[in-house]
Design goal:
This protein is α/β, with parallel strands linked by helices and 304 residues long. The protein folds into two domains: 17-139, Up-down Bundle (Glutathione S-transferase Yfyf (Class Pi), Chain A, domain 2), CATH 1.20.1050; 148-302, Rossmann fold. Helices cover 49% and strands 11% of the residues. The chain is built from 13 helices and eight strands. Helix 11 links the parallel strand 7 (235-238) and strand 8 (266-268). Helix 4 (70-86) packs across helix 6 and helix 5 crosses helix 6 (113-123).
Amino acid sequence: MTIPDNALTNSSHASYAARYAFFLGCVMPVKMPWAESAIMQVLPHFGIDVTYVTKSTCCPRAGVWMSVDERVWLTLASYNLLQAEQAGRDLIASCNGCYVTLYEANKTLKENPEKLNMVNDYLEATNNQYHASIRVRHLLQVLCEDIGVEKIKNAGQKVNIRIALHPGCHLRVFEEGLLVKYFNTLAEALTAEVVHYSTEQICCGLQANLADREYATYELAKKKLEEIKKLNVDAFVIVCSGCYDQFERTLKTLESEIGYKFDIPIIHLAEILALSIGISPDEFGMRLLRTAPVDSLIEKWERG
């Protein structure tokens, strides 16, 4: 599949009246304040009107709840979705897992009136009704389709760093791989070089934690991190909060168990975009709550 033309130019429907409610998920506000802040500064810079989903629950994770109790999955997801609907906005998510569960729940409710009625029977207890009238969008779709890669490129300058990417499993689930193409295209537009590697498509291990934490830590996440260490890159770039949570957990586990060290910053794509358009690291809190230090990357950005 090719990337739509409007993802490479100024989008034909981006008069910058695009309005979104941002679903943070569980991890980002706790462990990734720098990513949250970068996103909330970058989107308005390009004319995207974005507010928070303020009364959210867990998304909840589709890979768990769909098989345990579909009613719980759809009801909790619909409560998040209706916050955006009531605000008259589409919903945007950055975490791949949150995107998948909310996208799939929304699709299910749009296509199945009986399930929508079932959900609304539960929501009635909170004096709410969901009408399934909104879209669920990934951050990458908003960047590439509502704004456009060319507009993003022209708004700033490339950040002179070499990076490796981790798309994450769920980024490949929908849109026939288009989200992965967006991720790669944006990364290439914003940095000096994207270095690809053999384990790029391997899972971070987050889901495997539920069955075998040691396997998820040592056989999945650690193997990927070991290859990244050999690439001589300045940063390891993600978009998914769930993946970040797994890599951070892995690094802390490995450090305590075997004295493992990993000094390559794990950063969000939105941080690179913020740097590209001239937002300083301290303006979005880039140095805060980092498992791997970002000082060397910041110094390189400051040098030009």
